[in-house]
Design goal:
The complex is a heterodimer of chains A (244) and B (524).
Chain A: H1 2-27, H2 43-56, H3 58-63, H4 65-85, H5 95-124, H6 126-130, H7 134-155, H8 161-172, H9 183-198, H10 206-212, H11 214-217
Helix pairs in contact in A: 1-9, 4-5, 5-7, 7-9
Chain B: H1 9-12, H2 38-43, H3 54-68, H4 70-78, H5 90-95, H6 102-117, H7 119-123, H8 125-128, H9 135-144, H10 153-157, H11 164-177, H12 183-194, H13 203-221, E1 236-239, H14 243-246, H15 250-263, E2 268-269, H16 287-304, E3 308-311, H17 315-329, E4 343-344, H18 345-354, E5 370-372, H19 376-380, H20 390-402, H21 433-454, E6 458-461, H22 464-473, E7 484-486, H23 487-494, H24 501-512, H25 518-521
Parallel strand pairs in B: 1-2, 1-3, 3-4, 5-6, 6-7
Helix pairs in contact in B: 3-4, 3-11, 4-11, 6-11, 15-23, 16-17, 18-20, 20-23
The chains are: A mainly alpha (244), B mainly alpha (524).
Bound molecules: protoporphyrin IX containing FE (HEM) (2 copies) and iron/sulfur cluster (3 copies).
C-alpha cells in the first residue's frame, strides 16, 4: 500500500516534471542560427538527421565505437524490456507481447551487461572518470539494480505475475490492488519509483534535450530565409527585425 | 620567438595526429591571456575592472544567459558524460590537460550552474559535482575558456550536439560583464568600432596599399587590374579580413580576388568604412558587439549602393556573415536577391570558372605540392556552395584546377573532423603561444604525414586567422613558414589574365602543343 502511494506520487512527479522540463526547453529562445554543419537544408532533412541520431546514435558511432556499442546496446535492450513490460499495463495483453515475452529475459541480461560495460568504461578509462561525478555512477547503479532485481524474478525467484498485473493496472486506473510481498518485487518497484522521480530532473532527460538542441534541429537555409527570432543572445531586439 | 616553452615542437610534430596523451592535470594552468585594460573594457560597454559583488553578478548573468539561449541550457543540462568528446579537442590532444577536454571545459561552468540553479546542486552539491563560484573557479574560467578556439570539433562528436563553443562564448560574456575581459579580443573589437578594422588601418593607408598592389600586378602581368576603394555604385561590395590588406601571405589572396573580379569583368569595390570581415564579437559571445561591428557593413552597403555582398577568405568572418549578418543587421533590402546574400569569394570564383570565364595555367603552381586545411568555421558552422558539405568540395575543386599536385591529409583530420589551427576564437596572441603550439600539434602531425608520404610542401586555406597562426607555428614544427597559402593565392598564381604577358606565353605553349582550340583549352 505504501509502495502503491509511492509509485503513484513518483509517476505524477515523472509526468509533471517531464512536462515542466520539456516546456522549459521549448520556451527557451534560440537567438541565432547555429546548426553544426554539414546540416540538412530543409525541415524534413532535419527530421531525418534526428531520426538517425535517436535510432542509431549516429554521431556517437562516428566518434567512439566502444561507447556506441555499449550505449546503443543498453538503450535498445532497455526499450525492448520496457515494451515487454507493457503486458502489465494493457488488458488484454496484445498478441505480439506474448510472442516476445521470452526474449525479455535475454534482453534484460544484455541490458545489465551493457550497463556494467558502461560502468567499467567510466571507472577505468581515465579520461572518462575525470569527467564523472558520483551521480553519474549512481544513475548506472540504479539501472543495474533495477535490472538485477527484475532478472532475479524472471529467472530465480518467480513472482505472481497475475497479481503484479492487477497491481499495475490498479496504478493505471487509480484503483489500489494488493501486491505480492516478494522482496525482489518490492526492491524492483521501489527503485523504479526512485528512477521516475529522478528522471525529469537529471541528465537522464538527455533524450528530450537531443530534440531541442539548435545545433542539430535547425536547417541550414540561412540565405534562403531570414532568421529573425524575437530576441538575440543578449536580449537585444534584432536590428530592423520587422518580421520573423 | 624567444619565449622558452615547455614544449618541444620538433618532437611533438611526429606521430598519429589523434594519438591520446597521458592525462597531465594542470599542464596548461600557467597559460593565461592578458586582461583587458579598463579603457578597452568600457569602450565595449563592459565594466573597467572586477565589479563589487562579482559573484552575485556573475551568477545572475549566468541565469540570464541560460534563459536566453537554449543551446546553452541544453549543454548545461543534458551532458551524460559519455566521453565521446573528450578525445576530440586539439588543445587536449596537444597538452593532456584534462580541463581541456570539452566535457571538462563545460563542467567548469556547469558545476556553478548546478550549484545555484538546480535543486540537487543546492542541496547535495557533492553528489552532482556542484561547486560554489569562488575566485579560484573564476580564475579557471579565465584560463580554460581562453584555451578553446570555439571550433566545434567536439560538437560533431557529441550524441546530443552539445557545443562547447557556446559554453565558452557564454563564459566569456559573463566574465566581460563583471569586468574580467581578455585584452586581445576586446582591444581588436575596439579598433573595429573606432577605426573600422582589426588592424586599425585608416582609409589613406588602405588606399595607398591598394595602389601599390595595383602597380605590382601591372608589373607582373602587364594588365591594369584595379583594386577599387569606396566606389559608389559598384555592383559588388567585397568585404575581406583586414589582414588581407597587409599581412603575409594574406595579401597574395587579395591580389587573387582582384584578378578574378577583373578577368570576369565585374564591377566591384572595397569599403574603407567596412574594411573588416572579421568580427571578434562572436568570440566573446556578445551579440551586441557583433551587431555593432556588422552595422558598419550595412552602412557601407547602403552608402555605396551596391547590389551584391561578397566575403573574402576568413573562417569566423564567414560564419558571422553567413549565419548572423541577416539576423543581426539585416535585412538588406537593397541587395539583389538573384545572388546569394552574402556570397563567399570561393563561390563566386567557382561559378565563374565553371561558366568558362576563367583560365588557369596549372603549370604556374608546379613547384607546389599542396594539401588543404579545412578551417573550422566554414567546415562546421556554415556552408559554401549549394549543398551540405560543398564547403569541402569547392575549395578543393579550385585547388585541383590550379595545381597539378594535390593530396588530402588523413580522413579523420579533414572536412567536418578537421582540426583547428590552434589560433582561432581569440587565441591568436603571443602570450598564449604554448596553447597555440599545442593546439596546432594534431594538424602539424597530419601535415607531416602527407609531407613524408607525398612530398607536400604547401597547405592552402581560406581563413585569415589560420594563415597567421600557421605562418608562426609551421617553422616551430620544422616546415617553411611560406608553406602557408590562400586558395586565392593559388588562383592568383595560375590565372591567365586576358592580354597579360602570361596569356601570350600560355597561348603559345598550347598552340605549340598542337592543341588547336586555344581559347577553350585552359578552361574547366
Ligand atoms: C530518446 C531517448 C534516448 C536517447 C536518444 C538516448 C541517447 C543516449 C546516448 C546517445 C547516450 C550516450 C552513450 C552512452 O553512454 O550510452 C546515452 C547515455 C545514457 N542514457 Fe540515454 N537516451 C535516451 C533515453 C534514455 C532513457 C529513457 C534512459 C534511462 C532511464 C537513459 C539512460 C542513459 C544513461 C544512464 C546513460 C549514461 C550511460 C553512461 O553512464 O555511460 N537514456 N543516452
Ligand atoms: C511499475 C513498473 C514496473 C513493474 C510493475 C515491473 C515489474 C516487473 C516484473 C514483475 C518482472 C519479472 C518478470 C518475470 O518474472 O517474467 C520484471 C522484470 C524486469 N524489469 Fe521490471 N517492472 C517495472 C518497471 C521496470 C523498469 C522502469 C525497468 C528498467 C529500467 C525494468 C526492468 C526490468 C528488467 C530488466 C527485468 C528482467 C527482464 C524481463 O523480465 O524483462 N522494470 N519487472
Ligand atoms: S570547441 Fe573546439 S576548442 Fe573548444 S572544446 Fe570543443 S574541440 Fe576544444
Ligand atoms: S559527447 Fe556530449 S554528452 Fe558526451 S560527454 Fe561530451 S558533451 Fe557530454
Ligand atoms: S582560425 Fe581557422 S582553424 Fe582556427 S578556429 Fe578559426 S577557422 Fe578554425
Amino acid at each position: 500500500m505504501v509502495l502503491y502511494a509511492f509509485l503513484c506520487i513518483a509517476a505524477a512527479v515523472f509526468i509533471g516534471g517531464l512536462g515542466v522540463r520539456i516546456w522549459a526547453y521549448a520556451a527557451t529562445p534560440v537567438p541565432l542560427r547555429i546548426p553544426v554543419t554539414p546540416a540538412p537544408l530543409t525541415r524534413s532533412g532535419v527530421v531525418m538527421r534526428l531520426f538517425w541520431e535517436v535510432v542509431l546514435f549516429r554521431s556517437l558511432f562516428n566518434a567512439s565505437k566502444w561507447t556506441w556499442l555499449f550505449g546503443w546496446a543498453f538503450h535498445a535492450t532497455l526499450l525492448f524490456v520496457l515494451l515487454t513490460h507493457l503486458r502489465y499495463f494493457v488488458q488484454p495483453a496484445w498478441m505480439w507481447l506474448g510472442l516476445v515475452q521470452d526474449l525479455g529475459g535475454y534482453a534484460g541480461l544484455a541490458m545489465v551487461a551493457a550497463l556494467v560495460a558502461l560502468a567499467g568504461r567510466r571507472l577505468f578509462v581515465p579520461r572518462i572518470s575525470a569527467v564523472t561525478a558520483p551521480s553519474d555512477y549512481l544513475a548506472l547503479a540504479l539501472l543495474i539494480a533495477i535490472g538485477l532485481s527484475g532478472l532475479a524474478m524472471k529467472f530465480v525467484f518467480h513472482t505472481d505475475i497475475v497479481a503484479v498485473k492487477a497491481f499495475a493496472l490498479g496504478l493505471v486506473y487509480l484503483d489500489p490492488q494488493p501486491l505480492p510481498l516478494d522482496p525482489f518485487l518490492i526492491i524492483h518497484l521501489s527503485l523504479v519509483a526512485v528512477l521516475l522521480v529522478v528522471f525529469p530532473f537529471s541528465k537522464l532527460l538527455h533524450g528530450a534535450a537531443l530534440f531541442f538542441n539548435p545545433t542539430r534541429n535547425q536547417p541550414d537555409d540561412l540565405r534562403e530565409s531570414r532568421y529573425a527570432p524575437r530576441i538575440t543572445r543578449n536580449g537585444v531586439p534584432a536590428a530592423r527585425s520587422d518580421t520573423a | 620567438m624567444a619565449v622558452t616553452l615547455g614544449f618541444d615542437a620538433s618532437k611533438a610534430g611526429q606521430g598519429d595526429p589523434q594519438e591520446l596523451p597521458a592525462l597531465r592535470p594542470g599542464a596548461m594552468a600557467a597559460s593565461k591571456s592578458y586582461p583587458a585594460s579598463s579603457a578597452q573594457q568600457q569602450l565595449l560597454g563592459f565594466p573597467g575592472e572586477l565589479v563589487d559583488q562579482w559573484q552575485i553578478k556573475a551568477i545572475a548573468k549566468l541565469g540570464e544567459l541560460v534563459q536566453r539561449s537554449r543551446a546553452l541550457k541544453v549543454a548545461l543540462d543534458a551532458c551524460v558524460k559519455c566521453g565521446a568528446c573528450t578525445d576530440k579537442c586539439q588543445f587536449f590532444l596537444g597538452s593532456g590537460d584534462p580541463k581541456n577536454m570539452p566535457a571538462a571545459r563545460q563542467e567548469l561552468l556547469r558545476k556553478v550552474y548546478r550549484r545555484y540553479f538546480t535543486w540537487a546542486g543546492k542541496h547535495m552539491p557533492w553528489l552532482v559535482g556542484a561547486e560554489d563560484l569562488t575566485e579560484a573557479t573564476l580564475d579557471e574560467w579565465y584560463i580554460y575558456f581562453h584555451q578553446c578556439s570555439q571550433c566545434r570539433r567536439c560538437a560533431v562528436a557529441c550524441p546530443f550536439g552539445i557545443d562547447t563553443a557556446e559554453v565558452s562564448m557564454a563564459a566569456r560574456e559573463i566574465m566581460d560583464s563583471i569586468g574580467k575581459g581578455q585584452r586581445y579580443c576586446n582591444e581588436i573589437i575596439g579598433k573595429v568600432l573606432t577605426i573600422g578594422n582589426n588592424l586599425g588601418l585608416k582609409k589613406h593607408a588602405l588606399a595607398a596599399t591598394l595602389e601599390g598592389l595595383e602597380e605590382e600586378i601591372k608589373e607582373e602581368t602587364g594588365v591594369d587590374v584595379k583594386l577599387p576603394l569606396d566606389v559608389e555604385g559598384a555592383d559588388i561590395l567585397l568585404v575581406a579580413p583586414s589582414a588581407d590588406f597587409f599581412a603575409e601571405p594574406h595579401i597574395a589572396s587579395l591580389i587573387g580576388y582582384g584578378k578574378v573580379l577583373h578577368e570576369a569583368g565585374l564591377s566591384w569595390t572595397f569599403s574603407s568604412h567596412a574594411s573588416e570581415a572579421g568580427n571578434f564579437g562572436m568570440f566573446i559571445g556578445s551579440s551586441e558587439n557583433m551587431q555593432r561591428v556588422l552595422e558598419r557593413v550595412g552602412d557601407a552597403v547602403r552608402a555605396l549602393k551596391v547590389k551584391r555582398l561578397v566575403v573574402g577568405e576568413c573562417g569566423h568572418a564567414w560564419r558571422v556573415a553567413y549565419n548572423f549578418w541577416n539576423t543581426l543587421a539585416g535585412p538588406y533590402e537593397t541587395l539583389d536577391p538573384a545572388y546569394p546574400i552574402p556570397q563567399h569569394i570561393c563561390e563566386l570564383t567557382y561559378d565563374l570558372w565553371r561558366a568558362g570565364k576563367l583560365r588557369f595555367d596549372k603549370s604556374k603552381n608546379d613547384h607546389i605540392r599542396l594539401t588543404y586545411h579545412d578551417s573550422c568555421n566554414p567546415a562546421r558552422a556554415s556552408r559554401i556552395g549549394p549543398d551540405p558539405g560543398s564547403q569541402f568540395e569547392i575549395p578543393r575543386a579550385l585547388l585541383r584546377a590550379t595545381c597539378n599536385h594535390f593530396y588530402d591529409m588523413a580522413p579523420g583530420t579533414i572536412r567536418e573532423n578537421t582540426f583547428c589551427c590552434g589560433g582561432g576564437g581569440g587565441l591568436l596572441t603571443d602570450e598564449l603561444m604554448e596553447v597555440r603550439l599545442r593546439g596546432a600539434q594534431p594538424r602539424m602531425r597530419a601535415l607531416r604525414d602527407v609531407a613524408d608520404e607525398h612530398g607536400v610542401t604547401h597547405m592552402a586555406m581560406i581563413c585569415a586567422i589560420c594563415k597567421a597562426q600557421f605562418t608562426t607555428v609551421l617553422p616551430q614544427f620544422g616546415f617553411e613558414s611560406d608553406g602557408v597559402v590562400g586558395v586565392h593565392q593559388m588562383i592568383s598564381n595560375a590565372i591567365v589574365l586576358t592580354g597579360s604577358v602570361q596569356a601570350q606565353e600560355y597561348e603559345a605553349r598550347l598552340a605549340s602543343a598542337g592543341n588547336g582550340d586555344v581559347a577553350a583549352g585552359g578552361k574547366r
